[in-house]
DNA sequence: TAAGCCATTGTAAACGTTTGTGTAAAGTGC
DNA sequence: GCACTTTACACAAACGTTTACAATGGCTTA
């Protein structure tokens, strides 16, 4: 149905080889005269290149696949923007796939659609791959890199923030303002990222001579609901004066629940969020955060895929952004 | 490098045709014995199918491309979930592309990467295609459908809410609570969607015997900033008692700016948002909204692509969701 | 004028699949 | 034991490109 280079060749009275060369602009391989003939024929036929066919023979693609764990996590968009920016600089195209939230079957589906097609590389944004899917990924010949997630033992390529530092600095920011009874809400200790954040949090407290109680840490999956549940668990009479939200969403959950319990932020309760997406400045009061550089992560991810030798791990910087959710505690 | 069906054929001692049929599970075309041989060989070689090659010969693909206008608009994720759900039911896969915000070059890039490859159809989420890119899209043989956007004259296939009704119902909801001086903030009158919302808004006022002043309508691009700017234009001394935000983001912008101007929501100013994404229940007070059924839009979009005959336009339902940002105005 | 070179173009193989057609062997009914 | 059907497989063409190699012809140079 659609026009092919064969049709163009016939119409222009040349061979398909010449058409291919003209269209690919392999100059010094054709004359001006034929070039114009070919181009005229191409536009007349409304030719659309079939890249799949071309990729089949050249065995090389220019699309990067970004696999995202869920539509719910909002930081993904910042990473994707970084990916796009860097990719476009190098004439690469980006496609995005959603892999669902801890849904092995959907992960597999997303992975399959990219592995089975020619892609130049795969970026996995904060996705906890099920073991069988990891095997799948490794079995394919496609280069890959995890973003915004880290791993313990296995030597997987990843780019992320220093999660220990994230936990440490969020906690320390509160300590510096005089807080000593500080909670950590909505963190997931099943994975490396969460474990590191807990470790950083604990160390910051210990460095200030504080021994955290077990109930100060409320586990969860970084979601709004997890933040809410954590705050419910702390209760209106909590001894805590400050809470670190494991994510922006969790922090907002904490804040809204605190309000429902009659606690004012930051008057009664200070909050530091982890992530620092635009959500932090949308809510009232705006949330002070330990902000990750997601955009940079995206850029680094593309660079990692492009580099031959695989420098396996990389850490992107974080910074504390002061907004309105932390108050200085007067020492009593 | 990677194993092909040729390798499997050699290892299993059969022809590639047989391998293909076994792998595609075209039963009644092979015996149990060969099937097991082939499967054994396939796993031994770590075979990964090259779908691009298969699609080349079958001339038919099972991936749907969703083109999104920007990473910024948050409702997209709900549409995408709808798309995924419906697509997966029919063994279709979904890839997502970002087309940038009113950036013709990036639109073109996104469009090209999908048109040049075998895709089964293209869904365009709220993207205002530049004229040249629309021509491009129409020139390709790929079926397509616009989502969450509508058009005036041209007969383009689209699925969206009734934007006139959206404007009407949002305004009417405020009128019913006794408001008579009502603004509309952040709406874009350059496109059909925005124009319809303005028309609905105006009609609702007129039906209540109210003649809207020109300055009640503040134009913008549906963004947080647009909402903020609109509220700044209204000013602290505004005669308005209520405002319709052209989107969730715009409504939040209005609300936060109002607070900065010393106005309390909803005590001094009532707000109705348009869209009704989860953002509405994240902020404080939670925003009353005219909610669109984005999930349903995604489902309908996939169905539209799958149906041969193209029933060009479809309207998805909306509903008013009462939350906390509107107060009843006592008649004086 | 022959040899050599360069610019331009064509020929054909290859990429990894699917599938229509052909065919040998095995099974069926009489 | 014959004609027939069925089963199970192989052969080869096709999809739309790219590209190595060959071929052509004109031009330069000695």
From TrEMBL, chains A, B:
The keyword DNA-binding applies. It holds the Pfam family Peripla_BP_3. SMART domains: HTH_LACI. PROSITE patterns: HTH_LACI_1, HTH_LACI_2. Keywords: DNA-binding, Transcription, Transcription regulation. It comes from the Bacteria. This is LacI family DNA-binding transcriptional regulator. One of its GO terms (molecular function) is DNA binding. The keyword DNA-binding applies. The lineage of its organism: Bacteria, Bacillati, Bacillota, Bacilli, Lactobacillales. Residues 3-58 form the HTH lacI-type domain.
């Amino acid at each position: 149905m659609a026009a092919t280079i064969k049709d163009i060749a016939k119409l222009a009275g040349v061979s398909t080889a010449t058409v291919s060369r003209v269209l690919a602009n392999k100059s010094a391989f054709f004359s001006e005269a034929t070039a114009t003939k070919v181009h005229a024929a191409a536009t007349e036929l409304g030719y659309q290149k079939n890249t799949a066919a071309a990729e089949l023979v050249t065995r090389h693609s220019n699309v990067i696949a970004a696999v995202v764990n869920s539509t719910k996590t909002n930081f993904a968009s910042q990473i994707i923007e970084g990916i796009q920016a860097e990719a476009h600089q190098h004439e690469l195209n980006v496609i995005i796939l959603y892999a669902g939230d801890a849904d092995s079957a959907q992960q597999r589906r997303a992975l399959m659609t990219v592995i089975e097609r020619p892609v130049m590389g795969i970026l996995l944004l904060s996705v906890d791959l099920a073991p069988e899917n990891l095997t799948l990924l490794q079995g394919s010949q496609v280069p890959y890199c995890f973003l915004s997630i880290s791993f313990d033992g296995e030597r997987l390529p990843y780019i992320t923030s220093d999660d220990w530092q994230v936990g440490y600095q969020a906690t320390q920011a509160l300590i510096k303002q005089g807080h000593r009874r500080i909670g950590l809400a909505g963190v997931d200790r099943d994975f490396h990222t969460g474990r590191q954040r807990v470790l950083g949090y604990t160390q910051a407290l210990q460095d200030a001579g504080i021994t955290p109680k077990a109930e100060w840490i409320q586990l969860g999956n970084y979601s709004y609901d997890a933040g809410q549940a954590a705050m419910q668990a702390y209760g209106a009479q909590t001894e805590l004066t400050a809470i670190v939200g494991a994510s922006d969403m969790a922090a907002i959950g904490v804040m809204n629940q605190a309000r429902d319990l009659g606690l004012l932020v930051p008057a009664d309760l200070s909050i530091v969020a982890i992530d620092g997406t635009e959500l932090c400045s949308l809510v009232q009061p705006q949330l002070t955060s330990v902000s990750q550089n997601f955009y940079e992560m995206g850029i680094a991810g593309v660079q990692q895929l492009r580099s031959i030798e695989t420098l396996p791990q990389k850490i992107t910087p974080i910074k504390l952004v002061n907004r309105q959710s932390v108050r200085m505690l007067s020492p009593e």
